[in-house]
Inverse folding.
C-alpha cells in the first residue's frame, strides 16, 4: 500500500528530548515531516514560553500544582506549534515568487523528479504573464506543511505520586499523560510508539475517538509503530488492530546503526528485515485491515469506507543520495529517515554552539556505544560532550551519579520501595556499597563499579541544548549537554544549511567528508559483529547453556544476512555493497 502523498521522500525522526523539540516550526513550512518528543513536560513548558515570546502570543504558565498539568502542558505546546506553522504557511502563500524567499525555497528544495518541482521549473520558463500567474497560483495552492508528529517512548511510563506519596491512577503515568496531551491537541498527525510494547498505553489509546475513523472513514490522529523487525510489527499490529486501532505506518529502525537508545535484534540485519516487509507487506495489510474492521463493527464504531493507507519507512545510518534513492525504490518504501546528519543543521535542530562545534570536527572514534542509559539499554554516545566531562568530574570528586530531579527514567526498586533512577547518586552510592560488600576480587569490584559509574542523567543532559540555544533558564544550573548521534555522523563534517542537507539527500550536492564510507548495510553488519564479540567477552570464560544458544542464533542470523547481501550485489551496482569488507566481516564472524 505505497503512498506518495508526502512532498518529500525523507523525514526527520525524533532526536533526543530537545534536539527536535521545535523542529517542525523550522522545517514543516517547507513540507518536511519531523517528530517531537513529548516525554519531558518541563522542557515543553519552557519551549512554549519561548515560542509565545517569539510570536507575541500570551503565555500563561501551567504549573505543577494544576490538575493533569503534564498533559495540559503538552496539549498547549502542540497547539502553539500548529498555530505558528499555520501562520507561516498562510504568509508563504501570499508571497511573490522571488528567488531566495521562503516560497521559492519551498519548491527549490523539492525532489526534482516530483510533479510539483517540474511545475515549478515550468513556471520559471513560462513567458506568457497570464499563464505564468496561473502556474504560480497553482503552485501556491499546493503549499502544505510537513507532518508534525510526536514520539512516545513506551518504556518511559513511570507511575506518578500525589503530595502525600500515594500513587496516582494509571492515567497519570508518564506515557499515558503524554498520549492524552497529544490526543487533546489540535494536531491532525501521528503519534509514534517506540521502544517496545506497553499494554497499558495501547489499551489507553482506545479512550480517544480521534484514533478511530470518523463517519467518512478518516483518521484525525494516526498511529505509527516503530519496530526493529517484521515479527514485532505483526504481533503489535494485530494487538492494536483487534482494538480497532489502525497502524498508519510501520517505521523500521536499524537495531544498532541509529542514534540514542539501540535495541539490537538477534543478529537480524536491516536488509533481510526490509526484504521480509517487502514480501509480506500486502498480506500484513490485509490481515490487519480485516481484524481492524471486525473490531470496529463489533464495537459499533465507524468502519473504513475506503482502504486506509499504510506506509512503510526505514531509518538508521542512511548517508548518501544513492543509498536513499535505491532503498526507497528497491524495498518500495514511502520514506527514509535522516536523523543524526540534521544535528549539523542549525536551521533544523537545537544544538548549542559548543556541542555543534565539537560535532562538526568529530572523528569516527568520538562516537561510541555506551552503558550510559539508566534503562540498561545500550546508548549511542559522544565522547566530547560536556555531560561526559561532568560525569568524570563527579567520579573524581567521589560524587558519582546525578541529582535526580525529573525522574523520567526512575524504574529501579532494587534498594527502595519507590522507583529510583540507576544514574542517580542515591542508586550508585547504594550499588557501590553492595558491590564492595561482596566476596569477590578487588579487580572484579573495580570492573563492576566502573560499569555502574557509566550511567548518566539523560533527562537533564538531553534537554539542556534547546534551552541553551534559546537562551532559556537551565534548571538547577545543570547545563551539561548529552548528545547521542548515530555512528553514521562520522561521515559528515562541518555545519550545513537546511537547503544543503536536503540537496545532499537528493543528490544535488555531496556533503560526505573524506572518511572511507562503506554501504549502510555493511556499516550495520560491522556494528553487529562487534556487538556480538563484546557480548561474548562480557560473559567471561564461562558461558551457560542459555547464553550459548542465544549467541549461536545471533551468529546464524548474521550469516543469513551476509548470504542475503551476496545475492543482492547485482541489484546494488549504483551503491556497491563493498564486497571486500563483506568477505572480511564474514571471516571475522567465522572466528567468533
Amino acid at each position: 500500500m505505497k503512498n506518495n502523498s508526502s512532498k518529500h521522500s525523507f523525514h526527520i525522526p525524533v532526536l533526543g528530548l530537545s534536539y527536535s523539540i521545535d523542529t517542525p516550526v523550522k522545517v514543516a513550512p517547507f513540507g518536511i515531516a519531523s517528530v517531537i518528543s513529548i516525554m519531558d513536560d518541563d522542557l515543553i513548558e519552557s519551549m512554549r514560553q519561548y515560542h509565545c515570546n517569539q510570536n507575541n502570543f500570551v503565555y500563561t504558565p501551567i504549573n505543577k500544582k494544576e490538575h493533569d498539568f503534564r498533559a495540559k502542558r503538552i496539549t498547549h505546546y502542540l497547539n502553539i506549534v500548529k498555530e505558528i506553522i499555520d501562520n507561516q504557511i498562510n504568509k508563504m502563500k501570499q508571497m511573490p515568487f522571488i528567488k531566495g524567499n521562503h516560497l521559492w525555497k519551498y519548491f527549490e528544495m523539492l525532489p526534482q523528479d516530483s510533479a510539483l518541482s517540474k511545475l515549478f521549473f515550468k513556471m520559471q520558463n513560462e513567458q506568457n504573464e497570464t499563464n505564468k500567474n496561473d502556474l504560480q497560483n497553482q503552485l501556491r495552492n499546493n503549499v502544505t506543511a510537513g507532518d508534525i508528529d510526536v514520539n512516545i517512548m513506551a518504556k518511559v511510563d513511570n507511575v506518578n505520586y500525589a503530595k502525600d506519596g500515594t500513587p496516582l491512577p494509571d492515567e497519570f503515568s508518564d506515557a499515558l499523560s503524554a498520549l492524552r496531551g497529544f490526543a487533546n491537541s489540535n494536531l491532525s498527525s501521528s503519534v509514534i510508539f517506540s521502544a517496545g510494547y506497553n499494554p497499558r498505553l495501547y489499551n489507553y489509546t482506545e479512550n480517544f475517538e480521534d484514533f478511530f475513523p470518523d463517519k467518512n472513514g478518516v483518521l484525525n490522529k494516526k498511529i505509527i509503530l516503530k519496530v526493529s523487525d517484521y515479527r514485532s510489527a505483526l504481533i503489535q499490529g494485530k494487538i492494536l488492530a483487534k482494538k480497532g486501532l489502525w497502524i498508519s505506518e510501520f517505521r523500521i529502525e536499524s537495531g544498532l546503526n541509529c542514534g540514542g537508545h539501540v535495541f539490537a535484534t538477534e543478529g537480524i540485519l536491516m536488509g533481510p528485515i526490509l526484504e521480509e516487509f517487502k514480501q509480506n507487506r500486502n498480506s500484513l495489510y490485509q490481515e490487519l485491515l480485516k481484524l481492524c474492521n471486525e473490531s470496529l463493527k463489533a464495537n459499533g464504531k465507524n468502519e473504513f469506507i475506503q482502504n486506509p493507507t499504510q506506509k512503510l519507512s526505514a531509518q538508521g545510518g542512511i548517508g548518501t543520495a544513492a543509498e536513499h534513492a535505491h532503498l526507497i525504490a528497491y524495498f518500495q518504501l514511502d520514506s527514509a529517515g535522516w536523523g543524526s546528519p540534521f544535528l549539523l543543521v542549525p536551521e533544523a535542530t537545537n544544538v548549542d554552539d559548543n556541542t555543534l562545534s565539537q560535532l562538526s570536527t568529530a572523528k569516527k572514534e568520538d562516537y561510541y556505544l555506551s552503558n550510559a542509559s539508566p534503562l540498561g539499554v545500550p546508548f549511542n554516545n559522544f565522547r566530547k560532550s560536556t555531560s561526559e566531562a561532568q560525569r568524570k568530574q563527579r567520579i573524581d570528586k567521589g560524587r558519582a551519579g546525578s541529582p535526580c530531579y525529573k525522574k523520567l527514567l526512575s524504574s529501579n526498586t532494587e534498594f527502595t520501595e519507590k522507583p529510583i533512577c540507576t544514574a542517580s547518586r542515591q542508586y550508585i552510592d547504594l550499588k557501590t556499597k553492595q558491590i564492595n560488600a561482596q566476596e569477590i576480587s578487588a579487580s572484579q569490584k573495580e570492573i563492576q563499579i566502573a560499569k555502574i559509574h557509566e550511567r548518566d542523567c539523560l533527562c537533564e543532559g538531553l534537554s539542556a541544548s534547546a534551552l541553551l540555544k534559546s537562551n532559556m533558564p537551565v534548571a538547577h544550573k545543570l547545563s551539561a549537554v548529552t548528545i547521542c548521534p548515530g555512528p553514521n555522523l562520522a561521515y559528515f563534517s562541518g555545519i550545513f544549511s537546511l537547503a544543503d542537507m536536503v540537496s545532499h539527500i537528493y543528490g544535488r550536492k555531496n556533503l560526505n567528508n573524506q572518511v572511507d564510507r562503506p554501504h549502510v548495510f555493511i556499516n550495520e553488519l560491522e556494528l553487529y559483529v562487534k556487538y556480538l564479540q563484546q557480548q561474548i567477552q562480557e560473559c567471561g570464560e564461562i558461558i551457560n547453556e542459555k547464553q550459548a544458544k542465544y549467541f549461536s542464533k545471533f551468529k546464524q542470523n548474521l550469516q543469513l544476512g551476509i548470504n542475503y547481501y551476496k545475492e543482492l550485489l547485482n541489484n546494488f551496482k549504483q551503491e556497491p555493497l563493498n564486497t571486500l569488507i563483506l568477505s572480511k566481516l564474514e571471516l571475522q564472524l567465522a572466528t567468533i
In short: The longest strand covers residues 247-253.
